[in-house]
Structure formats: C-alpha cells, structure tokens
Amino acid sequence: MTSRTWRIHETKGPKSLVLETLPIPQPGPGEVRVKPKAVGMNRSDLLWITAGFFTPALPSRVGAEFCGIVDAVGEGVSGFKPGDRVSNLPHPLTYAHFAEHTIVAAEALVHTPDCLSDAEGASFIFTHLTQMLGLIEAAGLRPGMTVLVSGATSANGNSAVLLAKLMGAQVIATSRSSASRARLMELGADAVVATAEESLSERVAEITGGKGADIVYDCVGGSITEELLKSCAMNAYWLMFGYLDPSPVTISWPLWFHKQPKLHIFSTLQYSGSAAMGMKGQPIAFNRAIEGLLALVGSGKLAVPIGTVYDGIEKVQEAMQTMDANAGGGKIVVTF
C-alpha cells in the first residue's frame, strides 16, 4: 500500500517540491494516521523549504496545516477514532502533511467544528491562532483600542481585521492599492489606507484625531516601517510577525524615543514551543487561545476567509508558488 507524498531533497523554494510515492506510514503509540481532505498554505511552509528558520534533514516531508479524516490510531490514543474529522495545531513534532496519509501526535489534533467545510477546516487554526496569540495574548487587545493592520489583504491580515473588529477595536487596514478597499471593509475594517496612493501616517492621524494607533500589527516591514512608526500612538504596542518586504529600513531614532513604542518580534512558536529553536513555549496561554478560537469559530462568530482554492494533491506546488508570489488574495488552500 502506497501514498503520494510531497517531499524536498533541497531547500530552494517551491521548485524543490517533488510528489513521490511512498509506503503508507503506520501510527506509533500516541499517534494518529490521518487522510487529509484539504491542506492550508502558510508562510512557515516557505520558510521550511528555503531553510528560512533552520535546515531540515533531507529528504524532508512538507506541510504544516490540514483538515482530514482519521484513518487509524496508535496504542494509547483516546479521544479520536477512525472516521473522525480533525484539524491540527502547531506542534514541534509534526510537519509532514502535504500527503495522502500523514502521522500526527494525538495531542496536536482537535475535532474540526461541524460548521466548517474541509477547506475552512484547513485554514482556521494556523491563521486565526496567530492573531489570538498576537493580538489578545501578547498585545492585550481591548475594546475601544485602535489597531493598524499592515498587509491586510494577506491571510493573516484578513484574520486580524476580523478578530480585532470582533473584539471591539477600531480597525485601520492597509493595502497597496484601493482595489482591495471594498473587500477589507466587508471584513470589518473601519478605514482602509492604500499605501501606494496616499500617506499612511497622515490618514491614520486624520482617522484617530492625531492620537495614532494603539496596536500596530505588522507583517510587512521594509519600506512601510517609517510610516508605521509615524502612525504609532504614544507607547503603542508594535507587533511584527512577518516581513513580506525584507528590504533594509532606516528608522528615525528621535521619533522612536519620543513615541516609545514597544516592539515585539512575534511568532506562534513563542507560545507553542520549538525544541529546534530553543523555545519552551507558554502552554497555559497557548491552550487558552486554542479554546477561545474553537469557541469563536464553532459558534459562527468568527468567519474563516479563504482567498484561493486549488483542487488535487498535484496542485500543491502551484499553490506554494502562488503564495511565494504574494498572489493568493488571502488564505490559499488545496483540497484533495
């Protein structure tokens, strides 16, 4: 019995991906075998296949996020049985899910909410959990705050707009052009700033009456950084969780000292933990965020936006190329 599986033998980006036929893996003690029905694309996937965080042992299986059906369970597993539909959590021991069969630690699984499609089930955890941890646990988002979301047309940007609005914040979203304005307003943005067409800092000052943003939620960096600094309120919380624009930046240190924002370079690994990166994690906050997320999504209060859907395991490489080109229009999913 065999299973088609995406692997890499080198770390040179999406072109390194190879669809191979391998023996179906068997679950060990505490493990579950799952047949993915859909897989979500994440920036961590690109970092993995380019050795952006660390170099994986080659050849390496690939893929962080899925929704699928339990196929078999190993010794000692309780809470899951064949036929259950499940989604997975960020977990330091599981990163191999772009395949027809995958092995997962039981502790890294949750039952997929019934209200979600398979595509949504492969999209809601890694994206929304980033914002649950970043905005709520790290930045301390409260009703009435103003949140400035850079790169709001990305999957995480869409999620940040939805969650911040749900939590009672005033949400200012950015995109490169005004073409995305209607979509972002539909998601809940109170205002949208097209950074290629107007001054971000001037618009934020106008929207906030000169106060600036209490939380700057940034996945872009690069050339927008100076404008983000100008847009900060005094003692703002600046959470940077990505760098869609990796170009070097120049900062006005006098302005930084004047406004004194708290800069937090953030990733979910700070909460989930990663032995490979020497991160112990914060299990209490991590579990609290998961429980909160499942409640919000399961009740229908928090939607799961999807940008582009591909059909068929053969499309994984194309989907990764689309994400690498920042062209997905939000979350990118491949259904099997």
Polypeptide structure, described:
By secondary structure, the chain is of the alpha/beta class. The protein has eleven helices and 16 strands. The strands form three sheets. Strands 3, 5, 6, 7, 8, 15 and 16 form a seven-stranded mixed sheet that branches. Helix 7 (225-231) links the parallel strand 12 (213-218) and strand 13 (232-240). The two termini are 18 Å apart.
Keywords:
about 325 residues; alpha/beta; 16 strands; about 25% strand; globular; seven-stranded mixed β-sheet; single chain
Main β-sheet: number of strands, strand sense, barrel status?
Answer: 7 strands, mixed
| Net shape | globular
Through-space gap between termini? 18 Å
What is the number of E strands? 16
The H-and-E topology, N to C, reads as: EEEHEEEEEHHEHEHEHEHEHEHHEHE
Nearest-angstrom radius of gyration? 20 Å
Number of helices: 11
Q: What is the residue-mean pLDDT, rounded to a whole number? A: 94
Strand content: 25-35%
